[in-house]
Amino acid sequence: MELAQVRLLVSDFTVCYRFYADVLGLKPQSGAVDGPYEKFSPAVGSAGIALQDRAMMAEVLGELADAANGHRSLVVLRVDDLDAYCERITSFGVRLLHGPARMTDRMRVAHLKDPEGNLVELQEWLLMSG
To answer: What are 12-45's pLDDT values in tens digits?
Structure first.
């Protein structure tokens, strides 16, 4: 078994596309700005995030026609320099909910929300001391 992607169901596809491509700096696979689907990849690693138009999926699974509520996901991205990355994305108007701050002795994190309210955690892995 191989994890292909984490897919987020979104209502405003174009706004979310711009957020993941322009603000977070992930590379879109096809450039389908208006959807209904796009996969994004970081510069390194094999994990991916995909956006899927919620209305399209509601045609397959009717229960998805209801408005989403509550936190249903947490997208986690590892960055090399958390402070510099947070400075860059806040210049786009992103509001950090938390951090950058140490979470454990091995990692620093910051949290934000994408335009649809999905939580995003940015991680900077620290070298083990000692």
So the answer is: 999 999 999 999 999 999 999 999 999 999 888 7
Q: Which residues have C-beta within 8 Å of that of residue 8, sequence separation ≥ 6? A: 16, 49, 50, 51, 52, 73, 75, 114, 116, 118
Identity of the amino acid at 55: A
Residue ranges of alpha helices (H) inside the chain are 13-18, 54-60, 82-90
Backbone φ and ψ for 88, nearest 5 degrees, come out as: -65, -50
Six token digits for residue 62:
């009717």
Confidence of residue 129 (pLDDT cuts 50, 70, 90): very low
Interatomic CA distance for residues 58 and 56, integer angstroms = 5
Q: What predicted TM-score, i.e. pTM, was given to this entire model?
A: 0.76
Strands (E) in 58-106, as ranges, are 74-78, 98-104
